[in-house]
Amino acid sequence: MGVVVLFVLTFQIFLGTVIRGDQSGTTHVTIDDNLGTLASTYAPKVWLAKDEDYNPSSVGFHLENVKVYDGATSYSSTPSTLSTCSENCYMSSNQPLEHASATLPFFSGEQVGPSQQPPVYAVVKRINETATDILYWMFYPYNRGKNVCIGLHIFGVCIGGYSTFGNHVGDWEYATMRLVDGQPHQLFVSSHDFGGIYDWDAASQTYKKGEDAIQTEGTHPILYSALGSHGLWSTPGSHVYKDMPAIIDDLRDETSNGTAWDTWRNVTFTMYRPDGGYTGSWAWLNFKGRWGNRKAIKF
Ligand SMILES: *[C@@H]1O[C@H](CO)[C@@H](O)[C@H](O)[C@H]1NC(C)=O
Ligand SMILES: *[C@@H]1O[C@H](CO)[C@@H](O)[C@H](O)[C@H]1NC(C)=O
Ligand SMILES: *[C@@H]1O[C@H](CO)[C@@H](O)[C@H](O)[C@H]1NC(C)=O
To answer: Matching Pfam families, A to Z (predicted)?
Structure first.
């Protein structure tokens, strides 16, 4: 008997999970001890688009290729030495960008494959006794904007020229998983200037917002990263995200199943701190400035 109890205890410690029964006979999982496991369990599968030239990277990779500008001073940094700085601080590529559409080699990010891929940064935030949010932050060194006709379309030809909107260095995207009692509850997906809350539907094993559904692969939600700009969507296809005045093209995101970024293969996590004060390899989270060149065209 003693042996059995010991085995059960060891098994639970191994999982890092404490399971306790309550009066109604159901079990609850207290999640303090297994946050790392949960962060991996629910980390998304992100499909990078076909023909994507601008892959994700680690923060460290980006910092090797930029300097931090703080007023009159500039300096190199690493994830653990990046200072809090102010909102006026920014990063700028070590090599200059000659014009708004110029690119540099590091814009292509890091390798994304089955054995090697950039990390996803999970920030775990306790909401209350039962609810926990896991914010999955994904970084890309470069956001490629859109070529939009700013003139008139006449018989399918753009008269008046194209302009590129939204090219910028340093591109953060995120999705938030809300767990209740250690189980999936909702997924919040950000895409450009809007986001959406998707509710977990156990019957279909998907996250649903009306007719829209985010599929899963095992425990992992499947998201699609838009070509160049990396906004996250629930499905492959062509998505209009900003209705432009009639004479101007719509801004569209194109998503497809190009390269699988199985983010659970490289999840690094930390607890959310309301007061900043991240330390060690997470010190970069305190940075208040921009992650890219100052002259970026913001749209
Ligand atoms: C995870 O990311 C880190 C930081 O970039 C990298 O050093 C490591 O090789 C990556 N691990 C895998 C398995 O891809
Ligand atoms: C915890 O927070 C969730 C999400 O806001 C809410 O639905 C739930 O009622 C809260 N539970 C308690 C015990 O406060
Ligand atoms: C990728 O998309 C194609 C259609 O474009 C589809 O036939 C294929 O099954 C998809 N593959 C995966 C792994 O989702």
So the answer is: Vps62 (PF06101)
- Of 253, 32, 270, 268, residue with least CA distance to 144: 253
- Ligand 2 pocket: which of 31, 125, 128, 200 to mutate (most atoms within 8 A of CB): 128
Q: What is the pTM of this model?
A: 0.84
Q: At 248, is the pLDDT very low, low, confident or very high (cuts 50, 70, 90)?
A: low
Tens digits of per-residue pLDDT, 113-128?
Answer: 989 999 999 999 999 9
φ, ψ of residue 106 in degrees (nearest 5): -70, -10
| Lowest-confidence region among 42-51, 83-92, 219-228 | 83-92
Domain ranges of the chain: 9-286
Q: Whose CA is nearest to atom 4 of ligand 2?
A: 131
- CA-nearest residue, atom 5 of ligand 1: 58
Provide the CA 218 distance to its chain's centre, in angstroms: 20
